[in-house]
Amino acid sequence: MVLPQEGGGMTNRDARRLSLFLLFAPFAMWIGLLIILPQIGILGVSLREKIGPMQYTFGIGNYIDFLKEPIYWNTLLRTAVISILVTALALLIGFPVAYYIAKVAGRRSRTALFLLCLVPLWVSDLVRAFGWIILLRETGVISVTLQALGITSGPVELLYNDATIVMGLVYTVVLFMIVPLVSTLDSMDNSLIEAGLNLGGSRLTVLRRIVIPYAMPGIVAGCIIVFMLAAGSYLTPVLLGGKNSMWFTEQIYNQFITRYNWEAGATFGMLLLAFTSVVVWLGLKLTGQSLGSTVARH
Question: For residue 176, with 0-12 CB atoms within 10 Å meaning exposed, 13-18 middle and 19 or more buried, which class applies?
Answer without folding.
Answer: buried
